Amino acid sequence: MKKTNVLYQHGTLALLVPGLLAGTLKMEDLLKHGDTGIGTGEGLDGELIILDGIAYQVDSAGKVNLVSPEFTMPFANSHYADYQKVTTIANASPVDFEKAALQGRPNSNTFFSVLVKGTFSYMKTRAVVKSERPFSTLAETAQKQSIFEAKDVTGTFLSYYSPALFNGAAVAGYHNHFLASDHSIGGHVLDFKIAEGTLFVQTFDTLEQHLPVDNSEFSAHDFSKDDIAGIISQVE
What pTM was estimated for this model as a whole? Predict the structure, then answer.
């Protein structure tokens, strides 16, 4: 039985901060925990979005690629989709989107995912150029990114909301990825405006956190020396 109340997360955003970018989970194993998700490849190799059990990578050239089962990741989320329609939304800014997703609340103390299917009058995304060993830090790698922009594009906007008390494990607040229906643009969302769309929400009561305990670099690293919250806020 598929557990639609569980959000599975491999790795943490905190481990990316010092440059622990080794791929420690294969896509075929991530897909055992869900048919929907986001993530990034080894060395921050592009931006991932999983929809209907199909994994896509938006690379730094803007090309949308199908992801192989052997593709490895340092960080990813997945879950089994069971979204509930909340509302239709039109002429909406990021602030409007966040208010609609929170359904009038100032914040949430649980994890949830938001899906918007529709037309976006503006979409701005990014994908990072892959870092090779020895890996650079997250801040250094994020400086080498490609920016993509489009107007009047139809597609799927996939977001995960993490409570503030989990900042570091994930991004406090919203972490947004996008894929156009025609694959003309995708990636990590930097800015957007929704022309019209349908907003769906799925709430999780369980976070299943999976850590790369077999990776010696992760096991030996002292995270107390890293400005985790500051760097994540800077690059996300």
Answer: 0.96
